[in-house]
Amino acid sequence: MKYLIPGIIIFFAVLASITLIFDWGRRGNPFVTEPIGDIIVDSPKVNSEVGEKIAISGKAKGNWFFEASFPIQLQDPEGNILATGTASANGDWMTENFVPFSASLSFSIPTTTGYGIIIFKNDNPSGDPARDKTFEVPVSFSK
Questions:
Q1: Torsion-angle region of residue 9: left (phi > 0), alpha (psi -120 to 50) or beta?
Q2: Which is deepest, 12, 59, 81, 140, by most CB within 10 Å?
Q3: Could you report the per-residue pLDDT of 64-105, keeping only the tens digit for each?
Q4: Do 26 and 53 fall into the same domain?
Q5: How many domains does the chain have?
Q6: Cα(134)–Cα(75) distance, rounded to whole angstroms?
Q7: What is the pLDDT, as a whole number, of residue 6?
Q8: What angle do CA 89, 90, 92 make, to 5 degrees?
Q9: 26 and 43, same structural domain?
C-alpha cells in the first residue's frame, strides 16, 4: 500500500511525458519557429527605426510573385502613400516554396508623423479581389 501512491504518480508522470512527446510529433516542436504565413520579412523588423532609404529583404511563397516581382508601399497612418517599390525575386519564383526577395524604398521623412507601415502586396494579375493578399510591417522614422 505504501508503494501504491508513488507508483500511481510515476505512472501518470510517464504517461504525460509520452503524450507530450507524441503531441509534439503531430503538431511540430513548439520550440522550433516555422513560417506561419506566405511571407517572412527579415528586414526591417517590426517597429524598427528606418531612415529615408529602406533596404527590404525576406522570403515569400512563389504565389506572391508574378514575373518575379510584387509591389510594396510605405504609407503613413492616414493611408497616404510615401513610397512605392517592387520586390524582386532572388531565385526561381515559379514554385510553391519560399523564394528570397529584396527591395528598396526611398522617401522623405514626414514631419507630421513618426511612424508608417510597409505594405507587401501579392502580385495579382487576375484582378480578382478574392486573391489579394497583404502583409504589413509597422516601422518608426528616424529623426
A1: alpha
A2: 59
A3: 999 999 999 999 999 999 999 999 999 999 999 999 999 999
A4: no
A5: 2
A6: 13
A7: 67
A8: 75
A9: no
